[in-house]
Write a structure and sequence with these properties.
By secondary structure, the chain is α+β, with helices and mostly antiparallel strands. The protein is built from four helices and six strands; from the N terminus they run βαβββαββαα. It has one domain (6-104).
Length: 105
């Protein structure tokens, strides 16, 4: 069966399995990360997908992080989603744009 969700084999998730044993799915959305200090991606889209997954997979947890290291992964529960959305609505992408503009000068 093919589709956007992929069960990750253990050799790809050794660090993650220590955090939370169980099945890990790669959602495969391939979107830019958004977080404090890297205000780049479409966090509203990411939050929508997280909520959709939790509603359709009973008992599941959504974890979120950037693609550079597994250590960035953290539980992305409703509290975390509301917190990052509040931050996004306050600053948007401006901190990233500002840093980028400074680097070009």
């Amino acid at each position: 069966m093919q589709g956007p969700l992929r069960v990750l084999p253990f050799d790809e998730i050794e660090y993650l399995a220590d955090l939370n044993p169980g099945w890990w799915l790669d959602v495969g959305i391939m979107k830019t990360y958004y977080g404090k200090g890297y205000e780049r991606g479409d966090i509203e889209y990411i939050v929508t997908i997280a909520r959709w997954l939790e509603n359709r997979i009973p008992g599941s947890q959504v974890w979120y992080g950037h693609d550079a290291t597994d250590e960035s992964m953290r539980l992305f529960n409703e509290h975390e989603r509301e917190s990052i959305l509040e931050y996004y609505h306050a600053v948007g992408h401006e901190p990233y744009r500002y840093k980028r503009g400074q680097a070009e000068w």
